[in-house]
Structures are given as structure tokens and as C-alpha cells.
Amino acid sequence: MLTSTSAHAGHATVAQWVQNIKGAALRELFPLVTRADVTSFAFGLPAAELLPLKDYAAASSRVLSLDPRALQYQLPPESLKIHIQGLLASRGVNCRPDQIFLTAGAQQATHSLVNLFLEQRGQVLVEEVAYEGLQTALTPLQPEILAVPSGMESGMDLDAVESQLVRGARPAFIYAITDGHNPLSLSLSQASRIRLVEMARRFRIPILEDDVFGFLSYDGPALPPMRALDEEWVFYIGSLSKTLAPALRIGWIVAPAAFSPALHFLKQSNDLDTTTLSQLTVSSYLDTGVFPSHLATLRREYGKRRDAMLNALKAHFPLEARWRKPTCGMFIWVELPPEIDTIDLLRMAVKTEQVAFMPGAIFAMSGNRGARNGIRLNFTHCPVEQIEPGVARLARVLKRFMRSGR
Amino acid sequence: MLTSTSAHAGHATVAQWVQNIKGAALRELFPLVTRADVTSFAFGLPAAELLPLKDYAAASSRVLSLDPRALQYQLPPESLKIHIQGLLASRGVNCRPDQIFLTAGAQQATHSLVNLFLEQRGQVLVEEVAYEGLQTALTPLQPEILAVPSGMESGMDLDAVESQLVRGARPAFIYAITDGHNPLSLSLSQASRIRLVEMARRFRIPILEDDVFGFLSYDGPALPPMRALDEEWVFYIGSLSKTLAPALRIGWIVAPAAFSPALHFLKQSNDLDTTTLSQLTVSSYLDTGVFPSHLATLRREYGKRRDAMLNALKAHFPLEARWRKPTCGMFIWVELPPEIDTIDLLRMAVKTEQVAFMPGAIFAMSGNRGARNGIRLNFTHCPVEQIEPGVARLARVLKRFMRSGR
Fold first, then answer.
1. A–B CB contacts, 8 A cutoff, strictly below
2. pLDDT at res. A9
3. Using a CB-CB distance cutoff of 8 angstroms, which residues of chain A are in contact with residue B48?
4. Which of these three, A287, A315, A350, is where a domain ends?
5. Cβ contact, residue pair B262, A18, below 8 Å
6. Which helix (H) or strand (E) element contains residue B301?
7. Pick from B64, B246, B276: which is nearest to A60 by CB?
8. Do B343 and B262 belong to one domain?
9. pTM greater than 0.90
10. ipTM for the predicted complex
């Protein structure tokens, strides 16, 4: 790692925040979880065989043959915003196209909102266990993290949030994943949604609502996201990466139109705002009307995989392990006894049983050690027939690991 | 514009830098320069009719039918880095694929390097008249700008650079466009390239070398960029937006491999680094070997348009106007008498003669007023037969404007 004091004699001096990058310890895990011979429950990947390659290829051909400006600089297409408006209406969110701001995936939406609200070394309110993409977006701004715990049943501890705010904390924003929390696989209750929005209004703190998993619901539709309750304080982050395809980089923010000039400036600053070929192609794909049935297929297939994983956990995992049935998303979060370091467990699991997961430490905010005994299991990527055997092998390692007293 | 003190009663509070966004005065110009009935020399657009739509469509079909992981999350393709390595070799730059870092266009490359080196409120050394995309990348970090003048003949004033550095300034970086400067349309001499690199080494200051125009050369190949002279202090920014197509967002950084982890972290932070479909498709397009002849076509056609514009300027513009013949890039920079405010001129030009250009004020760093009498004329976008009549109309407005004593 480079440091701002020039680790290597000849190097240019980098900004101080670069020293805060999570180091080699975590990066060395990636070769482990991506090995070809390993059954990996590690990443939040869609099922490759369910990606709509043919329909997308047809849309791509249409756009490239019919639109002579397809490869030129142009403005983000209004047609895609109108499609997104319709998708959001199906989640109970009413918004206008001028409140929709297109981004290169949800990560860029998050990065933009972080930079819109957060001063260098400002404060943010985040759960102790949080999506790692939020953490990478925050790092260059070196914020003070006001961390609140999360319950295994109810999610973000709203008493802790209120207590921070009542004591005078005024974070730049509160970050929340309403449905299918990554990594905790929880969804907030309606009462929690209402309470959090009320706190945002009362204390005048924007909520960054990350809703990339709300469309992947397995027991009927998810509740409407918080943006359905408030359009002034809730800044909604959406994406087609989980439901259509990750490589297309279609994400968006829903925000009051007054913030558009600043968001537009940020997008210009980041990448000039011109991934329009992908946007035009996705819009053409959505024109065909096949997306609702594609979504239904995903819900059915991913629902089967979720159930297969839940059944396998019940059949094979030790009694000390705890998890909940997720209603949305791509993950099951399993809490193991507190003495277990799941990074060590991962190394053993890959070595002895060729099975991988994401260790909880990846999601621990600002060096917090509380999540080290958790593991995040993805159930969407592996074919259903690999899930039970993979979980059984993981359970074998785990039991061996627990017996060895590690 | 939103302010950090909440212009509207109900608004969430935005970060302080948002107040520094260039305001409505400049934004209001954009509808003017994009009006359908206007001959626009304003933007740095490729010729739409020369974009390789068919070849790109064929590559897109190949990738989507042959690569089942085309829509999935994956790592940036090594094959594209190897193609870029070959392209750079043709510019006299030797580098390895592990020194090439793919980005979403040159803007994201610039944004990443700015964030790699620059602390909040740190110093940077930039020309007084600079590419506006650099300015948007800098704004959120609120730097102190050490501005140096540029000569109409020699470009960046290297005596001024040296004087700043000798007096002890240690900016986070020096930003330079080596060939086809945007907007000044100059290329640095070989002596200037060598001198600037020597200063970078001597004072240990990285150079951000923006080379997006070096491949568009009209009087034989451009000189090798500064990266050919130094691989430690020169951080090279490249792009296919000007030579292949803007909508694909293919750009790159060439940097010592030791900086890869930090650049990778920044890319993850910004957009997760997964625009791989576009990267795979461009790589497949480059596999076919048609790019060199496409480049030759661009050089020939754009060269004709450049010459048409130079001839028209000579035929129609008043004697007081000054410009140079650019050897690279997309622009001709014209200096008008110092009393002329080219924003006012633009308004009159669009209104009375339906012709547009980019006024110099857009490129003035940090409120500097020195460029207000300059205009940037793009010669690549308009068909060659529109150039002479457009310049003639612009000259008519200009002469009227000068007579009116504005």
C-alpha cells in the first residue's frame, strides 16, 4: 500500500485518505472466493443462466441499426426515466421523471449522494454492519461514523438512532437498506419505516434509502420503500443490476428536482454522464414489455434457491447458528457463536471443502469487530442443485472448526 | 442553486462545495448552443456520420451471442488492456498491461487521479485557461489553484511553472494537455515536453497528462506524449471517446503498477468498476483490425474540416482576430480584441446568424477573466460544406459586434 509519506522512495505522494484503504488482509480473500473449483456463496451475483442475453442482444441490434446517434454524446434518454417511473409506481413510489437522476449503477448513485451531502470529515449515521460499497464511497471523505447496532429481527436499532439525534448529533445523512438488507438480509417493518422517516423530518436529516433488492421479493410484494412515505427527506437509490444485468450499469436516484443541478454537476465531474448507449438499449428492452415476466421468473427461481438454502441450513448447520428467512434480496446472514472468526473459517472451508462465503468482517463499519462471527451466504448465483451439497460441506467445516476450538 | 444554508426552507443541507458550482449564467448558454436550427461549432463532438455503427453493432452481436457472461459482473478484460498497450506503442509509449487502468472515459480517469493525489483544499498547478472537465473534477475538493499563463505559440508557460516551484509551491499535481490542447488547440514542443518532465522529477510533482487528442493528428503523427519520457512521474490519461465513440465510455490511466490498488479502490468507490460489456465489445471490435483504417479516415476527414475552417477564418474574420493552425485535436482557438465579451457575442450570434461557439469564459480557471475574449471553434462535428458558411456568418456578427462598440 502506498502511503502519503511515500513508502517507495520515488513515488508521487498520494492523498492522506489512501492510507485508510482496507489493506491486503481482506483483498487476499478474493482469490479464495473466486477459485474455479469452489462452490461460492460469496458474491451478490445474479444467476448467469437467467440473464436475458437474447432479449438484450435484440434490443442492442435495434438501437444500433435504428438510432444514428447511438454512439454519440447525448443526454440521458427521457424514455428510460419514464420506464423507471413506471417500475417505481409498482413499488408504491410516485415520482416524476424530473425527480429521477440516472447513474452508472447504484454504487454511483450512492457515491453521488455521499458527495452531495457529506463534508470532508463530517458525520454520517450508519449501521455497525453495512454494505461494503457504502464504505468505499465514504472512505475518501474520511467521515466520523456514528454507528448504530442492528437487531437480527428488526434491523437498524431505531432507539439508538433517536438517542443519537436527541443528544444533538446532526449527521449529513442516515443510510438504510429497507428491503433485503445487505448483508443482514432483513427488511424493515412498516412501523420502522414510518418511524425512521418521522425522525428524518423532525431532525431534518436526509435518508439515503438503498432499494436495490426491493424488486426481488419472494413472499408476495415487498412493502413500499420509505420514498413512498416522504419525497423531501428520502433520497432513493435504485438499480437494474440485480434484476436485469450488472454489466449494463443502470442505476438511479430519486430526489427533489431542486437537487438536479448539483447531481448533474457531480455526474459531469465523475464521468461526463454519457453512458447513453446502455441506457438507450435498456430502454428499448423495456419497451418490449418482457421485463415483468422476467422479474416473475427471477422471483420464482431465486425463491426456490432461498428455500433450498434455508432447508439445507436447517438440516446441516449446528444448533448454535442463527438466521432468519429473508423475504427479499440475495442473501442469508448466519450468526455463528461469538468466538468464531469467520475469516479463519473461510480459509479452512475453501481449503478442505471447496466452498466459500463472505465473512462478516468485510461489512464491519470503521474497524468494528462485532460482525466477525457472521457469514453472508448468497443464494441466487449457484444452481439450485448445488446449494444443498455446498451448505452440507460448509456445515462439515464449521463443526470441525468449532470442535477444534478455533 | 441550493446552498449549504438551505435556500429553501425544507431542503436537506448540502455540502459546502456545492455553493462553488458555476451558476446559471453559464448553464443558460447550453440551450443556445444546442438549438436545432443553429450551426454549432460549440462542442467537442465527433462527426456523427463517421462513427463506426455497423462495425460496433457486429462486435456487439458477437459478444452477446458468444460470451454467456457478457451481462454478468466480471473483471475488466485483459484483452482490452493489451489492445490499448498496442495503441500506445504507436504513440511511442511503452507500458505493460498491469500499468493500464481502465476507466469510464477520460473524465473518470481525471477524476480518479485528482482524488488520488489531491487533499481537500490542497494545491494544484493548472493553466489559467483549462478544460472545463478538469474544473468539474476539482470543484468538490475546493483546491487552491496555482494558475500559470499559456502562450498562443508555446502553450503552458514553463517559466511560470518553474518560478512557482522554485519559490516552494508543491502542488498535488500539474495538469497538462500535451497535444491538441482543449481549448487552446496547441501542442507542446519537444523541448517543452522534456523540460516539464524534468521539473516534475526535480520537484517530485506528478504530471496528469491528458492525451485524448494525440491520435487525431493532421500533419503526420504527433510527437510522443510525456509518458514516453518518464514512467514514474507522468500519469497518462487516454480515451477512445474522440476516436471510436463517446457513448462507449472507454478511457484509461497509465500509472506505475504500485498505484493500482488505490485506483481500483477509487473505481469501486465511484461505480463498482463493471462497465465490462462495453469493454468486451470494444475489445472485440479492435480484434477485427479495422481501427487503424478508421483512424486514418478520421484524420483525413477532420483534416479537411480543419483546413476549411482555417481558410474561412482567413477569408472572413477581421484582422484583429488571432489564431494558430492546430496540428491535433478538434478545436481552433481564436483570440479576439480584449474588450470583446464573447458570451455577449454568442448571444448575438445565435440570435442573428444561427451560429454558435464556446465562449472562452467557460474555460477560465477559478474566476479568472483572461479568457473572456477567446472563442473555441470545433471543426470535427459539422459537415465540411457547412463550415465556410458558418464561419462567414460568425464573422458578420463579430464585425457588427465590434462596430457597435460592445
1. 242
2. 44
3. 68-69, 72
4. A287
5. yes
6. helix B291-316
7. B64
8. no
9. yes
10. 0.94
The predicted pLDDT at position B2 comes to 42
Same domain, A127 and A198: yes
Q: What is the predicted pLDDT for the residue at B9?
A: 44
Q: Do residues B149 and B89 share a domain?
A: yes
Q: What's the pLDDT score for residue B25? A: 53
Q: Extract the C-alpha cell encoding B328.
A: 491535433
- Whether residues A270 and B270 touch (CB distance < 8 A) is answered with yes
Q: Which of A271, A294, A362 to mutate to test the interface with B (most CBs of B within 10 A)?
A: A271
DSSP letters for B123-138: EEEEESB--HHHHHHH
Does a structural domain hold residue B156? yes
The answer to whether A210 and B35 have CB atoms below 8 angstroms apart is no
Give every CB contact of residue A207 below 8 A, 6+ residues apart in sequence. Answer: A173, A174, A175, A176, A196, A197, A200, A226, A233, A234, A235
Same domain flag for A150 and A262: yes
Q: What is the CATH number of the domain that holds B183?
A: 3.40.640.10
Point out the residues of chain A with pLDDT beneath 70: 1-10, 22-27, 366-369, 406
DSSP state of A248: G
A159 and A265 both lie in a single domain: yes
Q: What is the pLDDT of residue B23?
A: 57
- Whether residues B104 and A16 touch (CB distance < 8 A) is answered with no
Sort out which chain A residues have CB atoms less than 8 A from B111's CB and list them.
Answer: 269-271
Regions of chain B with pLDDT less than 50: 1-9, 24
Helix (H) or strand (E) holding B175: strand B174-177
Best of A131, A204, A269, A381 to mutate (most B CBs within 10 Å, chain B) = A269
Chain B nearest-CA residue for A208: B12
Testing the interface with A: which of B71, B132, B248 to mutate, by most A Cβ within 10 A?
A: B71
Q: Which of B45, B64, B118 shows the shortest C-beta gap to A73?
A: B45
Q: Which domain holds residue B332?
A: 20-51+293-403
Give the whole-angstrom CA distance, residue A81 versus residue A50.
25
